[in-house]
Amino acid sequence: MRDRAESSARWAAIAIGFFVPISVALDNALMLAVLILWLAGGRFAEKYRIIRENPVAIAAFSLFCMLAIGMFWGSAPLSVALGTLGKYIDLLFVPIFITLFEDPASRRNAMRAFLASMLLTLLLSFLIRLGFLHANSILRGLQSNPFVFKQYVTQNFFMSFAAMMLASLALRAEGAGERALWILLAALATINVLFMVQGRIGYLVIAMLLLYLFMSRFGFRGLVAGLVATSLLASVAYYGSGEFRTRVSTATSELRHWHRGQATEETNSIGSRLEFYTNTLSIIRDHPFSGVGTGGFEAAYAGKVKGTGMLATRNPHDEFLLVTVQTGISGFLLMLLLFYTQWKHSARLPVEQKFLGRGLVLAMISGCLFNSFLLDHAEGLFFAWMSGVLFSGRRNG
Fold it and tell me: Where are the domains of the chain?
């Protein structure tokens, strides 16, 4: 029965890869199933050894523990602190996923599950754009902005990483026909991000991943080639896509109209974010070592902007700032340690998985600079799940 429970936990974990871009309800049900079956599978001494020997598992667990400790200071009610900590529960699943994906076949099936989900999303997005499908209770986007299951920011983030996965498959393809297929699909995913679905974070992520792709293949010369390729791609997107040009022009205009210390109009997205950042940094300066406690940001920020006419917010749309404002400099350093550990230990992976491991780090850092991706459900779960897939196995011990 323990063997069956362990096998079922592994298949439930693989299924998360397919459903994380699709359904929150199914994600949560599968996570609960994984936890119950993982516990039922026993072999805790072996699992403890696997976790203890895996630096990525330790780093993720340490960051979660720091957030848990942060509940015991600050003025946030316990219910609020627990609710906030619950949103970071994905970090606690990193060690669990790492024990479940020890088997290379499970890792391959997991990657296939996520890629199949993203190819389905890509197909449906094109069908919406072409007018063959319309918004309903399942498909959420419009013809002018054809996101499918998740909001456009989330879809663009996932699609950017999927484009990198497809490029990785193209690089290691053995036949010309197979290579051409993966290149075509990678190009379609890139087109989806840049020309079809709105979401500026996708533009940044795909630019970072493209630069890394060239550098990983050709070294310093690749950096120059990557900068040229990224610039050309950005130019084509700007002049060839009205949506891309509008998003860039709007961002430029919003930045120009923002003034430090003055209340920003609610419609000014860039100005609001800059306002959030500067006020949050001010709170961090007031509480540099302990922070305001897990779950304490909203009240602290409301107090900071009281009487100024500035907008209150529940999070600063920057995960680095959010972790730091809650747990102080120690939480910030633990978050950096997690990303550094993943980057360092990517060097021990096979070539194509090293490429994806470091790509995951770059994608998450890019996302966390402008969003609270560890706090957000889909992005946080994706990060935990993909960390388990890429950094599991005794090869990292």
Answer: 1-42, 55-102+260-397, 105-256
